[in-house]
Specification:
heterodimer; A: alpha+beta; Jelly Rolls; 6-stranded antiparallel sheet; 4-stranded antiparallel sheet; 20 strands; flat; B: alpha/beta; Alkaline Phosphatase, subunit A; 2 domains; 7-stranded mixed sheet; two-stranded antiparallel sheet; 12 helices; 16 strands
Chain lengths: 812, 450
């Protein structure tokens, strides 16, 4: 508990100029609130008549927070009662905010306290991978972790249900068996990927300038496939559709992670004037390393090898079937008028033309992955190395090895030194397993299984300590707790040996050591967890995977595009981290990462092939995450853009000014009108005519309007339906802009808001708790260090790692 | 379904299911399931199982010679020799509504859609599909088992769009229809079927192993519970809350282990939980047959349908020397090499079916075997696939149907006898008596004797 008296004394000593509270706030409360919230009625358990002094703000913070919120949203006074003047409301709100800030500055520094954190799914997977060298993502079967404050690693919400406990038991058994004995032999299985029916325009005329790889063509098929083990797999690719008779065999390409790994011919049977590709499966085997890979099947150079009469590139030299005799389609009775005969002739010719097979009606129907065949048997060398710390080869252990192995595993699983007394029960379990007839390795597996369901493994529990140094703002977390804080922040995983050793030697808190560790960790491959889990959640990119843009409105949106969109932002963020660039480049950068599919989608020429590469954006309309299709898609509805959603996205994620939730009973937007009888903008402006709505929408909507040149999947457009896009806007402070580029430069003028935003988001993620008012000074210190460090990524991470809430813990 | 991604990623699925994804995981945590038939004194219920073969048959090799009890098994039916006395070969049954009736092509779609419904389905590739209620679903409505019916298949397919000359894929993919607009797509992943029946991770282990495993698990739980009790003493209130959750979880898991140990009468599936779709087709089909038998034994359902392939199937059968896709070669144009291949596939399917029959006979059920208490129909919605013939469709009836069926005969019905009349009789034996099924005109005679 905070010593309230001291606080009160301090605040009254430095109170705001006298009179402001009495002049503005008290009369406002008296005339607008007190008729219900008084000492007798206490409506909603609130009595504003008790708030007579400035000090009441710090004494009753929750009540004042609520008051502020109700005044801001205009929710109070309720409908039907006289409304206060809006300038007056704004002044009162402003006063409360200022008072809050003043309190925060004066308050005693407080590092807060982080609840014991259960490993979330990503952390569990990574920890098991790094602990035992087995990477089969056991947590993928666990229930989804809830997320709050935008992240799924928040200690207080990571609950542990009985169902999850069961899953932990099952997973622990499986993991320990795999680590010691290898994956159980499994029969090869089939997994099929078959996309929904794809409609695309059939064309009689071949093209010359097109994607010969077929990767970006609608005939192709793409998906991310997880291969469970290193092994050989059989890949089957099955075409559908038809080719004109007389075409050369169709060539299908199979691609793994953007590289063509196999070309397969299909010489299809003739059916009349077409070749029927249906069911003409082709297959081959290849060794594929475990893990997630991007698989694709395409029709290669689809406009080549057509009969000569199609006039396409590299035509076939096979004989073509003769053009059907017109007489088979034409019967002109004697005495038919010349005009009627001409009409019939034309009709017959049309019939013949329709018989001609389209040039591009061949596509990949489905693909199957079968396997694993010949997986590497037994436990992996990697996992044995992690387990058998006694230094003996498997099978040559002495009895004392059990102790060495279990103690070593416990130290790493619990991420700290472990006493003999602590390991004793696990050794007992190993002994019990052997009494039951198990082998040496069975004993180790049983102990390991118990370690993996122990609270010391599943939770990161930090000890509550009493204050030792008087006047210190908190108690430093111990070296090993700090090592875990670091590793779960940057890697979503356990500390590695180097970190553990630095902690063992009590060196981790030395500024030079800490900074060097941060630099090392950010360059490590494991830091990709920060991209996946921090950026993925902060920028809401995880939602891209489940985004379902309307198929009729956006037929271009298919798996390849989805995969490419996600990849762009991932690579962009990763590069920023790896090259330690300015975080301001997130708002605007002169480069991005594109492959041919995405470059064509953006209308940027000169990018050929499926590999992603850094592309100069000078002279284009793109640059920064706000112009990336991933972000533009997740901030849209399935059928249309939403300036509100996008405005809210910008406010929440980039400006740290989340709008309050809409008040109850808001009139809905008349969406059906948009694009037909009025532009979406006009419909929304009508919505904003409502004063209650305007207070928030005047902040949100202009930001969204500025991005209206990008449609709901991020494609550039000049028109919305029948109406020209108006991407101009006026911000509440009166600044105006024309289009996305000017909007970005306005955002860049306000570096402070962005720095504040990324700091709060990353600090929340790093701590695994929501930020409190007492964290404000820490945030301000971090943003100051960030600015001083030229906004470099490492400056942000280092400042967070050195901050009070990261290094310390509130004493007992 | 075979684990298809279909734009629904694993992550999305998990998110969708969220915490609803529950229950039993550890092999010792099965809910008690007593096969009804095992309860003393009760007479065994009658089971109904349809097995569907796609793309018709080489009829010359299908039809037995001779009629009545003195008939000679045909080449394709040879693998069923040992079931001869328990089998009825039914000739002359028609699916009139499978014909074009003015709709043009699309015979495979209509074959699938009309097979169990006797209804002429609406020609559409859109969402406005319209078929009929299938015989198995009429029976299922009268059932009170945990699953009123089970729909299985060996071939996954797209479920929207055009599958056959302007007909929706729903028609070629599902023979089972709950309502005229609601097809019951077959589940093609044996793992999913098993989990639906028995929960996940139900491993086949012997009693000693089970007991040992239970002992170790209980000891592990004791160890970690003790550890969290120690921790409780040294942590703050919010951490205590977390540890409380943990302790509750541990106790709950312990309780379930104990209660399932105490429960001796629970049903033990005799197979290991399948991990997915086996690559080997014979193994795959046999597994799907096994799952039906398990579901019958545990009395989780009494009605099943199984599509060996979807109608119009293009599966290849390299393992029996037919590397060609099935559907194209059934348009054999009377070429001897094509006809030979069609026969080989037909024989292969019948062989797989004989595995099912063997297992049904071996499965103890009340005072007899499952076979004694079942009505088992084998056949398809096309006769000669080259001509897309919907008359005289291949049909076998096996099982003793609780004494209602007398096999050992080849019965030839007059032209124009609706196949649905057979279903009227079978449902009658299940004590389900609809006024009609699709185009049925009455019940089918001669199943219990001449």
């Amino acid at each position: 508990m905070r010593p309230l008296l001291i606080l009160l004394a301090v605040s009254s000593a430095l109170a705001a100029p006298p009179g402001e509270f009495e002049k503005t706030v008290l009369p406002f409360l008296a005339s607008n609130c007190q008729s219900c919230h008084n000492s007798k009625l206490k409506t909603a358990d609130l009595d504003v008549s008790a708030f007579l002094t400035v000090e009441s703000v710090s004494a009753a913070t929750p009540a004042w927070t609520k008051i502020l919120q109700k005044i801001r949203t205009g929710e109070m006074p309720p409908k039907g009662l006289p409304r206060p003047d809006s300038a007056q409301s704004a002044a009162v709100a402003k006063w409360i905010e200022t008072e809050f800030e003043r309190e925060a500055r004066l308050a005693k520094p407080d590092p807060g306290r982080i609840t014991a954190r259960r490993l979330n799914r990503a952390e569990y997977n990574n920890t098991v991978r790094d602990l035992l060298g087995v990477d089969f993502r056991p947590a993928d079967d666990f229930p989804q972790d809830d997320s709050v404050f935008g992240f799924d690693n928040i200690a207080d919400t990571l609950s542990l249900s009985p169902v999850l406990m069961e899953k932990y038991m099952v997973a622990a058994e499986k993991i320990s068996r795999i680590a010691l004995f290898g994956a159980p032999p499994s029969k090869p299985l089939v997994e099929r990927y078959q996309p929904p029916y794809r409609e695309y325009e059939l064309s009689q005329t071949p093209q010359f300038d097109y994607d010969r790889t077929g990767l970006s063509m609608p005939q192709s098929l793409h998906w991310m496939h997880r291969f469970p083990v290193d092994a050989e797999y059989l890949i089957r690719i099955v075409p559908e559709g038809r080719r004109p008779t007389g075409s050369a065999p169709v060539e299908m390409g199979v691609w793994l992670d953007g590289k063509l790994v196999r070309t397969l011919d299909v010489d299809a049977p003739v059916e009349g004037n077409t070749l029927d590709l249906f069911g003409m499966a082709r297959e081959f085997r290849m060794r594929i390393p475990a893990g997630e890979h991007w698989l694709a099947g395409t029709v290669l150079h689809i406009y080549e090898g057509l009969p000569k009469s199609y006039n396409g590139p590299n035509p076939s030299d096979l004989p073509e079937p003769p053009v059907p005799d017109i007489s088979r389609f034409l019967r002109i009775a004697p005495g038919t008028s010349e005009a009627e005969a001409a009409r019939l002739r034309k009709e017959a010719q049309l019939k013949i033309a329709l018989l001609r097979a389209p040039a591009n009606r061949a596509y990949i129907h489905y693909m199957e992955v079968m396997g694993p065949y010949d997986p590497v048997p037994g436990p992996s060398a990697e996992s044995l190395k992690h387990v058998f710390l006694c230094g003996h080869r498997d099978g040559r252990h002495t009895e004392s090895c059990t102790r060495t192995i279990v103690a070593g595993l416990a130290r790493r699983a619990f991420r700290r030194p472990v006493s003999e007394q602590e390991t004793a029960p696990y050794l007992k379990l190993a002994a019990l397993a052997r009494q039951q007839g198990g082998s040496f390795n069975d004993g180790i597996a049983t102990a390991l299984q118990a370690l993996l369901v122990s609270p010391d493994f599943l939770f990161r529990i930090e000890k509550d300590r009493t204050q030792t140094k008087s006047g210190a703002p908190g108690v430093p977390v111990d070296q090993h707790e700090l090592a875990s804080r670091l590793s779960y922040f940057l890697w979503s995983s356990m500390p590695d040996e180097e970190l553990l050793r630095a902690a063992d030697q009590n060196r981790l808190r030395q500024p030079a050591v800490l900074a060097a560790q941060v630099r090392r960790m950010l360059q490590d491959e494991r830091a990709s967890a920060l991209v996946d889990n921090f950026a993925g959640q902060w920028l809401e990119l995880r939602r891209l995977e489940s985004a379902v843009p309307d198929r009729d409105k956006f037929p271009q949106f298919e798996e390849y595009l989805r995969i490419s969109m996600g990849k762009e932002t991932e690579l962009f963020f990763r590069n920023l981290m790896r090259e330690d660039r300015s975080v301001l480049e997130l708002l605007d950068a002169k480069y991005t990462f594109l492959n041919q599919r995405l470059a064509e989608f953006y209308g940027i020429p000169g990018v050929k092939g499926p590999e992603f590469r850094k592309v100069d954006l000078a002279g284009t309309r793109r640059g920064g995450i706000l112009t990336q299709a991933s972000v533009l898609t997740v901030s849209s509805y399935a059928t249309r853009t939403s300036p509100v959603l996008r405005g809210k996205w910008v406010l929440e994620n980039l400006l740290n000014a989340p709008p309050p939730p809409p008040p109850p009973n808001v009139p809905p937007l008349e969406e059906t009108k948009a694009g037909t009888s009025a532009s979406l903008r006009q419909v929304m402006e009508a919505h904003r005519a409502n004063a209650l709505c305007a207070s928030c929408h005047s902040k949100m909507d202009p930001l969204g309007f500025g991005l209206e040149n990008f449609n709901a999947i991020g494609e550039w457009r000049d028109k919305d339906g029948a109406f020209p896009v108006d991407s101009s806007g006026v911000l509440p402070d009166g600044r105006t802009f024309q289009g996305p580029a000017e909007l970005k430069s306005i955002l860049l003028q306000n570096k402070g808001a962005f720095a504040d935003s990324i700091t709060e988001k990353m600090l929340t993620y790093a701590l695994g708790r929501g930020l409190e008012r007492f964290d404000r000074p820490a945030v301000e210190q971090i943003t100051a260090k960030l600015a001083a460090g030229d906004y470099r990524f490492s400056a942000l991470v280092t400042a967070i790692v050195e901050s009070l809430p990261f290094e310390m813990r509130r004493p007992k | 379904m075979i684990i298809t991604k279909k734009h629904l990623s694993r992550r999305t699925l998990l998110r969708g299911l969220g915490t609803a994804l529950a229950l039993p995981l550890l092999d010792a945590m099965q809910p008690a399931m007593l096969p009804a038939a095992a309860t003393a004194g009760a007479s065994a219920p009658t089971r109904l199982a349809f097995t569907y073969i796609p793309n018709g048959v080489n009829y010359a090799h299908w039809r037995p010679s001779g009629v009545g009890s003195g008939y000679q098994l045909s080449r394709i039916l040879k693998p069923l020799e040992k079931f001869r006395e328990d089998m009825l070969v039914l000739t002359g049954l028609d699916i009139h509504n499978g014909n074009a009736l003015g709709d043009g092509g699309g015979d495979h779609a209509r074959a699938g859609a009309s097979y169990l419904t006797g209804i002429h389905c609406k020609k559409t590739t859109g969402a406005d599909i319209q078929g009929g209620i299938s015989a198995d679903q009429i029976a299922a409505r009268a059932m009170t088992t945990r699953l009123t019916s089970l729909e299985l298949g060996c071939e996954d397919s797209r479920t929207v769009g055009n599958c056959d000359s302007g007909f929706s894929c729903a028609y070629t993919n599902s023979i089972s229809w709950r309502s005229p607009t609601m097809p019951m797509p077959p589940e093609t992943n044996p793992r999913v079927v098993f989990e639906r029946l028995f929960g996940a991770d139900n491993l086949k282990v012997d009693d000693a192993t089970r007991a040992r495993r239970t002992l170790l698990r209980t000891s592990i739980l004791d160890t970690v519970a003790e550890r969290s009790r120690q921790l409780m003493g040294s942590v703050g209130p919010s951490d205590k809350r977390k540890l409380d959750e943990y302790m509750t979880g541990v106790r709950e898991v312990e309780r379930r282990i104990q209660s399932s140990e105490a429960d001796s009468g629970r049903f033990q599936p005799a197979i290991e939980a399948p991990a997915g779709v086996p690559v080997d087709f014979a193994e795959y089909a046999k597994l799907m047959f096994d799952l039906q038998i398990l579901a019958f034994q545990a009395d989780l359902t009494r009605v099943s349908t199984f599509m060996i392939g979807r109608e119009g199937s293009v599966r290849t059968y390299g393992e029996i020397g037919v590397p060609d896709p099935h559907h194209p070669i059934t348009h054999h144009q009377n070429r001897p090499d094509f006809l030979e291949k069609v026969s080989k596939i037909n024989e292969f399917h019948v062989q797989l079916y004989s595995y099912f029959l063997d297992r049904m006979k071996a499965a103890q059920d009340g005072d007899g075997s499952l076979f004694d208490h079942s009505l088992l129909v084998y056949g398809g919605g096309l006769c000669d696939p080259n001509r897309h013939q919907h008359e005289n469709v291949p049909t076998l009836l096996l099982g003793k149907g609780n004494g209602k069926i007398r096999g050992g005969r080849h019965v030839v019905y007059p032209d124009g006898t609706p196949l649905t009349n057979l279903y009227m009789t079978l449902l009658d034996h299940m004590n389900v008596r609809p006024d009609s099924i699709g185009d049925s005109t009455g019940k089918l005679d001669y199943l219990a004797g001449v």
